[in-house]
């Protein structure tokens, strides 16, 4: 009587699961507002050095005046003669004229962080990712010590506090500090809620429940946030709106309970039974006490057997002690770097593409819906490995084509085509990113899932700090960032072939299970090409890798 069987009796897709999926959706909205607020508050519109002769002129007239000047954004005019600007010598620009998007006041326009101060938003961005690394490690550790639910609440509130603090800053040191605090919760609040929902859903419903909710709610948050920012008209007020809804997570403990699987790994059997009884009551199920007695007996005996075999408690570092689990862990770490860096570069590179970055960001965010549907329709057919490998392969091809189109086309004249290609690129990276989350969570044993997933995420988030340098490669050759990211995605697709398939299998609960997991599979095993159905029983085959 293991966890999956007891959960089936208590209800693995009932009212309780419906409620936690709705709360998971709310968390996705909070996550989208939080993660991309950095992009929306630092958009830098086209700008020119201010001069008395330019006041009252339209943007097109100013462009015409500056047409013969190499760096119009940072070159001070000495005057205007016959409609042509004359550059001043050895003088620096002190004020600027901004072509604001619908009057939106961003951080860069209000604080005038352009030209010789243009690096300052990037400094804040880097501290955001430093905070992400610290927060992911810290909250990942706490999730395996005090539980998924309380850690998720703390992470969400920490990130919201950082966003709220940012809305009051005027100097670079305070901006960097507030972005560091904001970064503490990046991805942590999302993946901890993901793990919580993952463990209470039927294996048959996980792909549908997790991915369709992610696609709809995350897409909703991304598509509406640029319009909300424009409607509010000020980056400070936007951060208030993006941070205050996080207080809603304080109501989560009224509807959901701690992860029962985590409680079992900590030998807190009474609390685990209490959680499962709550699930059964919520779902309107009647489960006899004898079922829970047999359930607890099963796990006590299992823990006693494992204690005899291994007296050490399972830890993330323990995943490096055995050869197969070590190979899986290193592959997941490297794959996280590739996918996260690719995702960030493709999603943040919205400026200079011939259209409003707000509109481009909003309209291309609709890709989350087809991306979620793609995972929903294909992942249970071609398997987790096939989905991860295929998404990276297709994403790499789309990104390569997009890069060359950008190189050889005028953005102003081909804005629609470029927007479509940017949308397709975001689609490919989104499928790869979302598929990777579930795949990693299924490969990693339950006993270390919280800390392991957090450490894998932290490596990926650390690589995100390189995204701005990758984008800067376009200064040397326009399609170079796309070519670089495409090569990474192709390499990542090959890495996926070395991982085991998890579809239709009993997932590992401890490190010993993880080492034995899928020992009879070859690199080219895909469920859609093999009619043999995997058993739900633990795979204890002692054969070596094919």
UniProtKB/TrEMBL annotation:
It is found in: Membrane. It is a multi-pass membrane protein. It comes from the Eukaryota. The chain crosses the membrane at residues 12-36, 122-142, 154-175, 181-201, 208-232, 238-264, 328-346, 358-378, 390-409, 456-474, 480-499. GO terms for molecular function: transmembrane transporter activity. The keyword Membrane applies. InterPro entries: MFS_dom (IPR020846), MFS_sugar_transport-like (IPR005828), MFS_trans_sf (IPR036259). Keywords: Membrane, Transmembrane, Transmembrane helix. It holds the Pfam family Sugar_tr. Residues 71-504 form the Major facilitator superfamily (MFS) profile domain. GO terms for cellular component: membrane. PANTHER family: SOLUTE CARRIER FAMILY 22 MEMBER. This is Major facilitator superfamily (MFS) profile domain-containing protein. It comes from Drosophila virilis (Fruit fly).
């Amino acid at each position: 009587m293991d966890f999956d069987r007891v959960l089936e009796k208590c209800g693995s897709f009932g009212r309780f699961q419906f409620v936690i999926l709705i709360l998971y959706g709310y968390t996705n909205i909070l996550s989208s507002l939080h993660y991309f607020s950095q992009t929306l508050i630092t958009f830098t519109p086209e700008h020119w050095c201010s001069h008395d002769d330019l006041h009252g002129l339209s943007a097109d007239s100013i462009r015409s005046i500056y047409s013969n000047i190499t760096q119009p954004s940072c070159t001070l005019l000495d005057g205007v003669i016959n409609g042509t600007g004359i550059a001043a010598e050895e003088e620096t620009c002190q004020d600027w004229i901004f072509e604001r998007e619908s009057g939106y006041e961003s951080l860069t326009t209000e604080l005038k962080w352009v030209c010789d101060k243009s690096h300052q938003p990037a400094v804040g961005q880097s501290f955001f990712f430093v905070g992400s690394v610290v927060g992911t490690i810290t909250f990942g550790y706490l999730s395996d010590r005090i539980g998924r639910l309380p850690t998720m609440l703390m992470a969400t509130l920490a990130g919201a506090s950082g966003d709220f603090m940012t809305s009051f800053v005027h100097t670079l040191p305070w901006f960097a500090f507030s972005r560091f605090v904001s970064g503490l919760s990046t991805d942590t609040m999302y993946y901890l809620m993901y793990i919580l929902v993952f463990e209470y859903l039927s294996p048959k419903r996980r792909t549908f429940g997790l991915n369709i909710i992610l696609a709809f709610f995350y897409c909703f948050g991304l598509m509406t946030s640029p319009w909300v920012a424009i409607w509010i008209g000020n980056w400070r007020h936007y951060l208030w709106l993006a941070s205050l809804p996080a207080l809603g997570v304080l109501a989560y403990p009224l509807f959901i309970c701690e992860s029962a699987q985590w409680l079992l790994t900590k030998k807190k059997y009474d609390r685990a039974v209490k959680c499962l009884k709550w699930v059964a009551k919520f779902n309107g199920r009647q489960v006899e006490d004898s079922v829970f007695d047999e359930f607890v007996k099963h796990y006590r005996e299992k823990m006693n057997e494992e204690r005899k075999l291994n007296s050490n408690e399972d830890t993330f570092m323990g995943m490096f002690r055995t050869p197969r689990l070590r190979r899986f862990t290193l592959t997941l770490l490297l794959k996280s770097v590739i996918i996260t860096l690719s995702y960030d570069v493709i999603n943040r590179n919205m400026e200079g593409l011939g259209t409003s970055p707000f509109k481009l960001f909003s309209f291309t965010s609709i890709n989350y819906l087809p991306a979620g549907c793609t995972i929903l329709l294909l992942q249970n057919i071609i398997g987790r490995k096939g989905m991860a490998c295929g998404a990276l392969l297709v994403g790499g091809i789309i990104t390569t084509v997009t890069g060359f189109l950008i190189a050889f086309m005028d953005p102003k004249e081909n804005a629609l085509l470029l927007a479509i290609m940017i949308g397709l690129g975001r689609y490919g990276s989104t499928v790869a990113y979302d598929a990777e989350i579930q795949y990693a969570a299924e490969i990693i044993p339950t006993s270390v899932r919280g800390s392991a997933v957090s450490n894998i995420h932290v490596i990926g988030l650390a690589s995100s700090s390189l995204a701005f340098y990758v984008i800067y490669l376009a200064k040397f050759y326009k399609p170079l960032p796309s070519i670089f990211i495409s090569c990474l995605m192709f390499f990542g697709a090959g890495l996926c072939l070395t991982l085991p398939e998890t579809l239709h299998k009993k997932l590992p609960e401890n490190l010993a299970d993880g080492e034995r997991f899928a020992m009879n599979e070859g690199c080219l095993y895909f469920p859609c090409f093999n009619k043999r159905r995997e058993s739900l029983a633990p795979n204890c085959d002692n054969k070596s890798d094919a």
